Structures are given as structure tokens and as C-alpha cells.
């Protein structure tokens, strides 16, 4: 593949300049829809965003194959984190960076650009390719709300490659943990803190006792737990009667996940009982874990493409979550690969251009080679 680096970079920068912070993806979705309609494709665009306050929708494009071979779905997400408005990308040596104090939005517009350029090269050179689906999701950065609200019956292909990994090409994410979210609300009793504090039940103290009873941080090789936020109270002369904290638990083992959540719940209940208060312990099952079999077609396709491009390969057990978790929970075999982006979700985000070009060639190889 003789990569058109200028066109690829121009396309990426054009997309980066389109604001698409989570819940505000419409303009970016419009751009992608127009891109494919101008090339003669029907574009399925859902109304998933209406379910959670986004003005965008997931996009699915079917590309019929011109050669034999198993179908593949290529996935990337449209949305970005903040600060993601008014981004101006500039080349700085071997990297693409943001000119200002915003993110770059290589996460995940580099994934979209790689897919578009790989297919554009196929299209203009009339190169045989497998049957493909391109799935661009919204609100991945907001607990994967886009993929959670996508109708997977619209996607008959059960093999997916997501171009949404940080780091250099060659790494294949083969597992990611499940995550539960927790909101624990402690209820005590108000009293004047200076005149009759003994008549009150301090909810802040109650929450503190509960947290002190917990094992947090790195629980074991598969499990983590963290308190993210605590809030409540007001004037210093009033015994606080209500406070809450938010937390999360992640694990590659559903049994360990359940056990850790239960231990945190027990700590909260014990602290509430000890002080004569109450606690409401709410749990949300945010996403399941996923495991990619090395015998799967998606894994073999990634490995073969890397090997053809002469790239050393390795596997990675991830600690975060993404669209792959959601789609794997729906029975789709998912692999996640890196695009050469680093320090994502920060103003230091950068994209290694040579690694990005390599990723685009890898995507092209997966589209065109028989494995």
C-alpha cells in the first residue's frame, strides 16, 4: 500500500477541528454520514442519543465484499472528552499535537481516519476486499452509552476490530475488566454542633468510618476499587445529616467483582448501624468484562496483519473499559488495537505520525488479505 500520507493527515485534521465532545456529536456524525453518502453508500444512523441526552447517533455502513473471506467490522468512536472544543492540530516534529490547551482528539479520530483512508485507497485502486462493516459510536467516553444503546441486530458480522488503543502498533488488547459503579448515601440526624451535638448523628463521620473499613486500590492482580467523590454537609455549626460518596470496582473476575462490592456494602452497613444511622447502597452494573480468544478470527486477523507489516506483536490485558466490553457482552468477538496515540484525555495528548501511518496500513491489510 502506497499510503497517501497528506490526504490521511488532512482528513484527520479536518475531523479534529469538528467539535464532538460527548453528548454533542451531531456535527461529526453529519460529516461521516455525508462522507459515505457521497461515495454511494447507504448509512444507517440510529437515534440512540435520545435515550441519554446526546444530539448524535451511532453510524453503521455496510461494504459488500469483492473477495471471499470472513466479514470484519471496524469500529471507532466519534466523541471526545473535554476540553475538546476549538482544537487546532499542528505537526510538531514526529507528532501531531494540539496548538492550545485542549486535548488533541486522536482518541478516537485517529481510528476513524485510519478506517476511512484504508478504504479510500481500496476504492480508488479497485482492490479486492472482504465484506466489511464500519461502526462509529457516540458517547464511548460517557460509560459507552452509544454502544449500550446500539441495536446489535443491525450488525450481522460477529468479528470486530476496534481502533481505539493507546500506544504503538503491535499490541492487541485481549481482555478488559467489568465495572460496577457505587453510590452510597449516608443519612444521620441534624443537631446544633455547638449546643447539643450529642443529639445529632454525623453522616460525614459515618461515611468516614465506612471507608476506613474498606480495602481499596489494588485488591489483587485482577481487581481494583476506588472512592472517586464524597459530598455533603454545610455549615460548621450543624451536624451533617446526609452525605454520599461515589465509587467503582473493576475486575476481570465476575466473582471477585461481586465479592468486592459486597465487602464495601457490608462496611457501609456496619458503620451506619454502629452510629444509629442509615445507608442507601446503590450499585450499577456499568459493563461486563471481555476476553478475546487467540483462536478467534478477529485475533488471528490482527496478528496476521501485524506480521505482514513486519511489526512485533504482543498482547495486553487492559485495565479500562471501552466499546469492546459492550459488544463482547452481546456476543461479538472484539479485538482492540492501538493507533499511536499517547497521553490521551489530557492537553499533552499526541499522535506519533509514523505509528499512525503504520496502523492505517495494518487496517488496510486486514481489509484486503485472506487469513
The arrangement of helices and strands along the chain is HHEEEEEHEHEEEHEEEHEEHEHEEH
Straight-line distance between termini:
18 Å
Structural class: alpha+beta
How many alpha or pi helices?
A: 9
- State the helical fraction: 25-40%
CA-atom Rg in angstroms: 24 Å
Which consecutive residue ranges, at least 5 long each, have pLDDT under 50?
none
Total beta strand runs: 17
Shape: elongated
> In percent terms, what proportion of residues is strand?
25-35%
Q: Nutshell version of this structure?
A:
The chain is of the alpha+beta class and 371 residues long. It has helices at 5-16, 26-37, 106-125, 145-148, 203-212, 254-275, 297-308, 323-329, 353-368; strands at residues 43-45, 59-63, 72-77, 89-92, 95-98, 132-137, 159-166, 171-176, 178-187, 217-220, 223-232, 242-251, 278-287, 290-291, 314-317, 333-342, 350-352.
Task: Tell me what you see in this structure.
- This protein is α+β, with helices and mostly antiparallel strands and 371 residues long.
- 31% of the residues lie in helices and 28% in strands.
- It contains 9 helices and 17 strands.
- Strands 1, 2, 3, 4, 5, 6, 7, 8, 14, 15, 16 and 17 form a 12-stranded mixed β-sheet that branches.
- The radius of gyration is 24 Å and the shape is elongated.
- The model has no long low-confidence stretch (mean pLDDT 97).
Amino acid at each position: 500500500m502506497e499510503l497517501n500520507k497528506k490526504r490521511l493527515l488532512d482528513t484527520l485534521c479536518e475531523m479534529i477541528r469538528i467539535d464532538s465532545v460527548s453528548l454533542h456529536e451531531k456535527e461529526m456524525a453529519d460529516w461521516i454520514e455525508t462522507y459515505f453518502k457521497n461515495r454511494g453508500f447507504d448509512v444507517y444512523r440510529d437515534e440512540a442519543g435520545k435515550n441519554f441526552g446526546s444530539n448524535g447517533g451511532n453510524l453503521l455502513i455496510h461494504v459488500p465484499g469483492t473477495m471471499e473471506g470472513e466479514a470484519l467490522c471496524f469500529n471507532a468512536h466519534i466523541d471526545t472528552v473535554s476540553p475538546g472544543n476549538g482544537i487546532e492540530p499542528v505537526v510538531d516534529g514526529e507528532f501531531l499535537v494540539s496548538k492550545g490547551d485542549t486535548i488533541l482528539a486522536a482518541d478516537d479520530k485517529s481510528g476513524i481516519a485510519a478506517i476511512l483512508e484504508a478504504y479510500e485507497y481500496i476504492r480508488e485502486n479497485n482492490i479486492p476486499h472482504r465484506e466489511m462493516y464500519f461502526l462509529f459510536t457516540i458517547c464511548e467516553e460517557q460509560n459507552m452509552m452509544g454502544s449500550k444503546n446500539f441495536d446489535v441486530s443491525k450488525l450481522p458480522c460477529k468479528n470486530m476490530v476496534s481502533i481505539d488503543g493507546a500506544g504503538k502498533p503491535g499490541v492487541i488488547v485481549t481482555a478488559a475488566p467489568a465495572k460496577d459503579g457505587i453510590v452510597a448515601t449516608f443519612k444521620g440526624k441534624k443537631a446544633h454542633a455547638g449546643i447539643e451535638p450529642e443529639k445529632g448523628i454525623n453522616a460525614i463521620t459515618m461515611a468516614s468510618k465506612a471507608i476506613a473499613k474498606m480495602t481499596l486500590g489494588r485488591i489483587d492482580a485482577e481487581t481494583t476499587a476506588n472512592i472517586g467523590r464524597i459530598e455533603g454537609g454545610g455549615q460548621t455549626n450543624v451536624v451533617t445529616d446526609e452525605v454520599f460518596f461515589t465509587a467503582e470496582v473493576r475486575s476481570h473476575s465476575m466473582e471477585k467483582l461481586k465479592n468486592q462490592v459486597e465487602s464495601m456494602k457490608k462496611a457501609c452497613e456496619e458503620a451506619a448501624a454502629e452510629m444509629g444511622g442509615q445507608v442507601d447502597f446503590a450499585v450499577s452494573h456499568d459493563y461486563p468484562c471481555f476476553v478475546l480468544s487467540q483462536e478467534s478470527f478477529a485475533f488471528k486477523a490482527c496478528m496476521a496483519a501485524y506480521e505482514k507489516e513486519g511489526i512485533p506483536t504482543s498482547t495486553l490485558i487492559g485495565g479500562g473499559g471501552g466499546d469492546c466490553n459492550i459488544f463482547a457482552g452481546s456476543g461479538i468477538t472484539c479485538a482492540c488495537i492501538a493507533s499511536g496515540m499517547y497521553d490521551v484525555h489530557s492537553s499533552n495528548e499526541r499522535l506519533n505520525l509514523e505509528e499512525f501511518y503504520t496502523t492505517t496500513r495494518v487496517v488496510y491489510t486486514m481489509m484486503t488479505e485472506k487469513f
